[in-house]
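tool_log.txt
---
The assistant was asked to compare two proteins side by side. It first ran the structure predictor on the initial sequence, then on the second. Raw inputs and outputs are pasted verbatim so the downstream comparison step can read them without reformatting.
(1)
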Amino acid sequence: MFPSTLPAPRLPDAHQIPALRWGIIGPGWIADRFASALCHHTHQRLIAVSSRSVDKAQAFADKWSIPHACGGIDALLARDDVDAIYIATPHNHHFPDGLRALQAGKHVLIEKPLALNAHQGEALQQAARRAQRLCMEAMWCDFAPKYDVVRQLLADGALGDVHSLIADHGEFFTPDHRIFNPDLAGGPMLDLGSYLVAFSILVGGAPERIVAQGEPAPGGVNGQT
């Protein structure tokens, strides 16, 4: 029988989490949300932000009271007062930017996707081990309160034996959106499908067999899977 009440989500106490000094690479839309979350809900410290455009970095720094605006990734990675780097550049830059940050001795939080393929992901893992630094994908939904509720229901056996999971995710994008640009690793799999894959693994574990069918979108990228 399905439980009559749901467990309360277990939220970490922000006071118990060590405050790191953060740098941001790529001050775009998602980085703006990241900065907002850190400023309003944590005790983490934003120290520096970098962009290829100094003006863009400075505008972002002014908005979030970040002390240092850097014109490029090298200037940011050279700072001794930065412990961890959040990377929010376009998908095809995640791997090289993450690798450079690890080689500079920084912990790295990379916006999803962590990399474009398993080979790049393994290279990041090896670089993190050599540097003895954390390299993590910013799969934000894993830390949402509702996901903790799901974890508790699965762990407690409240749902019984789970035989099927039906998950669907779709969004509308205008034709000029980067998701249609193959040069920026476009297509929905890395942007949207990652949510479904991650949730499926959370519920059922690693897959033993995968059967997939795709349909292309205009421009040559995958439209749906």
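(2)
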Amino acid sequence: MAICGGCRAEPAPWAARTGGAGLLGKKSFLFSALYAAFIFGGRHLMNKRAKFELRKPLVLWSLTLAVFSIFGALRTGAYMVYILMTKGLKQSVCDQGFYNGPVSKFWAYAFVLSKAPELGDTIFIILRKQKLIFLHWYHHITVLLYSWYSYKDMVAGGGWFMTMNYGVHAVMYSYYALRAAGFRVSRKFAMFITLSQITQMLMGCVVNYLVFCWMQHDQCHSHFQNIFWSSLMYLSYLVLFCHFFFEAYIGKIRKTTKAE
């Protein structure tokens, strides 16, 4: 699809056939509020009882999301590679075909909807009485809010955001499934996933910068408010994931070295 020269995009056909993308934005706050209530209420209730094992359900859950993410990464990734190879970087950032292409429109809408069931990750953490860090629930809430509100506008850069997220989640949930199934996975694999997430957030900032620059010349469809919130979101993720990487890996290595 050609680059939109500053015009306002029409709603994505797939979203229109599935009840309208506008409803997603309104429901995102309800889902986020229920999610937050479950976090604080669930942790309070679990303080008074023994943890649940839930190993088999966790394997099934992680494997399902892994397979979904793998297919999503392959489908959106194939389109991304095609645009990059045939039309270049600018078109890959500004192209809106991800939202209404014959195949990618389904995976774009599926990506947005998947942010709700992905909240289920937290259910397992709370019921199994594992450590719940701020990054985890903050990331879930903000991604849900941003994705559900931005989808209706078909903003530029969405193809990159979706493809990167699908790719990282394909590896991450595969790792979770293996761990839940009892396989011993190298610590380096976990470090690789976190580094991939850091790279994703850095690329998200770069894509937002490119959209902002090209938007000034009416070559990318977006608006300043979206770029502002998206950039703030990606920057906060970048800081939090870098902090997590240092605390989880670098800090522990230093402590082990000192102990020896």
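---
observation on (2): The radius of gyration is 19 Å. DSSP finds eleven helices and no strands in the chain.
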